[in-house]
Amino acid sequence: MRPDSPTMAAPAESLRRRKTGYSDPEPESLPAPGRDPAGSPAHLHTGTFWLTRIVLLKALAFVYFVAFLVAFHQNKQLIGDRGLLPCRVFLKNFQQYFQDRTSWEVFSYMPTILWLMDWSDMNSNLDLLALLGLGISSFVLITGCANMLLMAALWGLYMSLVNVGHVWYSFGWESQLLETGFLGIFLCPLWTLSRLPQHTPTSRIVLWGFRWLIFRIMLGAGLIKIRGDRCWRDLTCMDFHYETQPVPNPVAYYLHHSPWWFHRFETLSNHFIELLVPFFLFLGRRACIIHGVLQILFQAVLIISGNLSFLNWLTMVPSLACFDDATLGFLFPSGPGSLKDRVLQMQRDIRGARPKPRFGSVVRRAANVSLGVLLAWLSVPVVLNLLSSRQVMNTHFNSLHIVNTYGAFGSITKERAEVILQGTASSNASAPDTVWEDYEFKCKPGDPSRRPCLISPYHYRLDWLMWFAAFQTYEHNDWIIHLAGKLLASDAEALSLLAHNPFAGRPPPRWVRGEHYRYKFSRPGGRHAAEGKWWVRKRIGAYFPPLSLEELRPYFRDRGWPLPGPL
């Protein structure tokens, strides 16, 4: 290579300039935003949670949206004016029981916006609450931003439904959503609607509130199993779980027929995730991230293997608090002006000179400290419950459902029972040649040939309660007699909760009865599976005897229920 070639001349010229102290008058170009001086993409720093807040709010808004969607579709039929358990009757009974108390005391015992509304049209009230919740949650889900007022509105609206929802809202995930939603209020600024509110960084106290929540959820679920059914200790529970869970899905059919060693592995893995992994939260950033990843993967497996409403989707939400901006950065696009780029600039500003504290920041810090003190105080009975050998699960200790106990499947049923509702047009219900026709529910097992449904995160509340009713008697579940009366009258609202009405386009049945069956999954490759049957069922006996519309008149009047149809 010639020494006077351009490739050799450039370094030489540079060397002469350095020796003489000469510098080029042209200034060096600044690195592009979001890039380091070498021109490569800049990486977010650890320890900030701007993007974490966006992900948390979107995830929480998604669960709220599903919950309010379920409420909008089903509340009228379950707790409306002519619902199976009308909330107007429930409110009046509650009001009568506390008639010697002040209005504020009654409200504090059961806080709900419905106390302030006109009860003459409860269906409209319930729809209004659900539609408001759908609208606000949609806004937060789409934009990823919220303020305290919007999140408090979501929390108050859903609490208003839970507190009047009677047995239909008695599931543990209702309180879990309210506690998660309460923490979500303090993620946000008071007024500002911005995805990156510059003067309101995500509070570490609130983040630890979410982490404390997922710690209690998982540890509570693990302890209730170890202290509960023996099959959790001898590792045989998964031999039964997929078949006997409330609403199985198609994947559960195949998982149920897995080898025995796979079921033992599942049970051991469950104990590891619920009893040991929660303590990773307190072992530093990397262990906390591992905790979050494992918990989210565990919930994803549960979603795939069963229809557990929005429970597992909701349980993912507090796990997101384990990740900082550096961990979640891959979820967001890069480039000048992007959220990622703006967070990087805010991180640089934080590392520089600290701004003078603003009055709003001081108030916010005081509010966060107060929240931490409140959570610590309300956690005392919850911790005592966790440590107790008589641990109870899915219980709240205050009417606001702020800090609660959790747990799931402390005992596993070894056989699956189902209640099948049947009707007949025959005038003689006891005749041996009477033809009885089955009603089909939206999701719960009925027709053995029908494929199990796949609906998570949606939730059919009636189907779940039918699962519980099958292990009790109809005397413990008087709403099922109310349902039978509505079927006798071909009530349109009640029938909308079902998948198939055998009397559609015909006069309503003269009699309705409940039959008790035992269900088992068919064996793949076996005779029943070859006939297209997912289930094999065997009759146990009568659940409740044949009922006619006329003989239910006094039963309905005693309970203050509206009479279905023209009695």
Automatic annotation (TrEMBL):
Signal peptide (residue range): none
Any single GO CC term annotated in Swiss-Prot or TrEMBL for this entry: endoplasmic reticulum membrane
Transmembrane segments: 50-72, 128-155, 205-224, 296-314, 366-387
Compartments in which it is found: Endoplasmic reticulum membrane
This protein's UniProt keywords: Endoplasmic reticulum, Membrane, Transmembrane, Transmembrane helix
InterPro entries: LMF, LMF1/2_C, LMF1/2_N
Membrane topology note: Multi-pass membrane protein
Domain of life: Eukaryota
Region described as Disordered: spans on this chain: 1-38
Residue ranges of every copy of the Lipase maturation factor 1/2 N-terminal domain listed in the record: 169-328
GO terms (BP aspect): chylomicron remnant clearance; endoplasmic reticulum to Golgi vesicle-mediated transport; protein maturation; protein secretion; regulation of cholesterol metabolic process; regulation of triglyceride metabolic process; triglyceride metabolic process
Lipase maturation factor 1/2 C-terminal domain segment(s): 402-545
PANTHER family the record matches: LIPASE MATURATION FACTOR, LIPASE MATURATION FACTOR 1
Function text: Involved in the maturation of specific proteins in the endoplasmic reticulum.
Membership in a protein family: Belongs to the lipase maturation factor family.
Name of the protein this chain belongs to: Lipase maturation factor
Classification of source organism: Eukaryota, Metazoa, Chordata, Craniata, Vertebrata
Name of the gene: LMF1
